[in-house]
Amino acid sequence: MALKDLPADARPREKLLARGPAALSDTELLALLLRTGTQKHGVLQMAQSIRDHFDGLAGLLHASGDDLKQIHGLGGTAKRAELMAVLELARRAVAEQLKAREVFGSPQAVKNYLQLHLAHKKHEVFAALFLDAQNRLIALEELFRGTLTQTSVYPREVVLKALHHHAAAVVLAHNHPSGTVQPSRADEALTQTLKAALALVDVRVLDHVIVAPGDALSMAERGLL
Fold it and tell me: Are 119 and 52 members of one domain?
């Protein structure tokens, strides 16, 4: 059914203005962003199809521009650009939260932030959150790409970045494109190597977070740090 054929109080825009955004379903909110559907599918049907394709909003938020481009109706630039902008706004909102207060006052926010940045990537990425003395976020930097081992992640480079940011502590992070967040023996060995290297310059390793689409694991919470 086209939006124009719906009762006025059931149309997403009118419903939002009358009752607030919380009254709308995920599909209706997404339909508002899309504005129009395709020749074969109305905007609500298109929104539901996109939501189903990514297994919900969390999956959509972790989607890359290339992922979106594969969806019928998002091959052009306008709608895809708007969805990518929403994703970037979500990243920046969480970053502001982490910069304004102690990171570990909200451990779930850290996981969400890292998922938004790393979980959608098709290759392994090693990154670090650099923190000040109050454990507030200074910067997130992607440092290495590819299969992560003690030989492919260079402790010297991590130490230099920590010194560059005048960091007092770091949270290490990487993604598992396979979808599992269970740490490997190599992950555990790498964590200990970096922990020892950073300790030489009085920088603490507070955690190593492993992310995948829809999931995240804290090695500190598992007692592996």
Answer: no
Report pLDDT for 150: 46
The answer on 110 and 39 residing in a single domain is no
35-40 mean pLDDT:
77
Domain CATH number, residue 142: 3.40.140.10
DSSP 165-213: TT-SEEEEEEE-TTS--PPPHHHHHHHHHHHHHHHTTT-EEEEEEEEET
pLDDT digits (tens, 9 = 90+) for 55-84: 777 677 767 778 888 777 776 777 788 888
- Enter the tokens of residue 32: 């508002």
Cβ neighbours of residue 193 under 8 Å, at least 6 residues apart?
150, 155
Interhelix angle 26-34/12-19, rounded to 10 degrees, is: 120
Average pLDDT over residues 81-100: 77
- Distance in angstroms (rounded) separating the CA atoms of residues 70 and 53: 11
Segments in 22-151 forming alpha helices (H): 26-34, 43-53, 57-61, 65-69, 78-100, 107-114
Residue 161 and residue 196: Cα distance in Å, rounded?
Answer: 15
* Residue type, position 158, single letter: V
Q: In this structure, are 137 and 76 located in the same domain?
A: no
Shared domain for 64 and 121, answered yes or no, is no
Q: What is the pLDDT of residues 182-191, one digit of tens each?
A: 998 888 999 9
**Angle in degrees, CA 82, 83, 88, rounded to 5:** 95
Q: Name 84's Cβ contacts closer than 8 Å, sequence gap at least 6.
A: 65, 68
Is 224 a member of any domain? Answer: no
